[in-house]
Description:
The protein is α+β, with helices and mostly antiparallel strands. The chain is 29% helix and 27% strand. It contains nine helices and 22 strands. The longest helix is centred in the N-terminal third of the chain and has 21 residues, at 60-80. Keywords: Flavoprotein, Oxidoreductase.
Amino acid sequence: MEKRIAIIGGGIVGATAAYYLSILPGSEQTKVTLFDDGTGQATTAAAGIISPWLSKRRNQRWYRLAKAGAALFPELMRRAQLGTDVYQQTGTIVTREVPTDLETLVDLAYERRQSAPTMGQIETLSAAEVQQRVPLLTAPQPGVFISGGARVDGAALVQGLLAQATAKNLTIRRERVRFTADGQVVTSMGPRHFDRVIVAVGAWLKEVVAPLGVVAAVRPQKGQLIELNVKDYPLQENMPVVMPEGERDFVPFGHGKLIVGATHEDDGKFDLAVDPAVTADLLASAQRLMHGVTADNITAVRVGTRAYTPDFAPFFGPIPEHEAILAASGLGSSGLTTGPEIGRLLAGSALYGGTPDWSEYELPLTTYLTSSAE
Ligand SMILES: Cc1cc2nc3c(=O)[nH]c(=O)nc-3n(C[C@H](O)[C@H](O)[C@H](O)COP(=O)(O)OP(=O)(O)OC[C@H]3O[C@@H](n4cnc5c(N)ncnc54)[C@H](O)[C@@H]3O)c2cc1C
């Protein structure tokens, strides 16, 4: 019998889940409907850096997940045949001013590479060598170069994956939906029953699961970044991403496009307004990194809403007491990196059922999802 699966949310988690639900064995007997209204989506606002290996975060579960996510990217891109405009391993450079700090970072890179071959080549670069790789920078610091680091265009990735899934078994509905207390999905055409529902609504999980009697420990965080056009500069297609110490990240996308950001604004509200003071601050950071850039170079300011849990860790899986509904949230500032692996795992679980054991990647879901009756 045909299986009907709904996905609520079309960011990186929902889009990757939809893609895998269109290619996994058994998907031929499955009809998938994705509901998304796109407002505030973190995925389309994101800077696009895929380089988790030198993070100072001590959460080993998060690190294993981020490492798996970074390793999945090249395979996913090959399979989906998405080009270098969407994803490219341009390499990433992390800079440190103090030589001993740089040595510590390089040691960490070699240690981490033992279990993360995706990292590729590691090179220690002088300030002059950093500038040679990224001629846009005017006063770079020395740094470590990781050749497997990448940049991804979140909006283009989602678009590419959804287009391929739509050619198979996916229908997309651009609308906001909600749950009934018994887990039906209320659409503009009324309540609908689905055999499985994947809830990939990012920062909006709390309101979406409330009708089920579930309380989600997820809060929103605003993020802003600027997109610059610097086409007068010698921009190579494959210029590395730079994560400069004490400054905003610097992401060259080719074709004159450069991203500088992002902010982490913790006022706990869903606020998509562009703040001119923040734009000026981001521009000032860009100007400290490279001379000659002015407000005239800003082509867009992107605003998105990240989802955070109290321990800053993502979670995903069947909602306790609602096993037919799978949720994912809390991807925070690294969700472009972890999102595809989460989407892939959720797709398999929605299709084949069973009780997944993802304890290597996350704490039990009861850590983040509790009953409102408690
Ligand atoms: C400025 C910024 C920069 C970032 N930079 C990076 C980076 O460089 N590297 C990195 O790894 N990560 C980065 N991130 C983090 C990353 O973007 C997020 O963690 C990730 O995109 C979250 O994906 P998601 O699918 O969980 O949620 P989202 O992308 O937010 O998607 C959720 C979707 O659900 C929809 N939705 C919500 N409620 C409903 C409803 N009731 N009905 C229908 N649809 C609904 C929303 O409209 C939205 O489209 C950044 C984030 C921001 C904001």
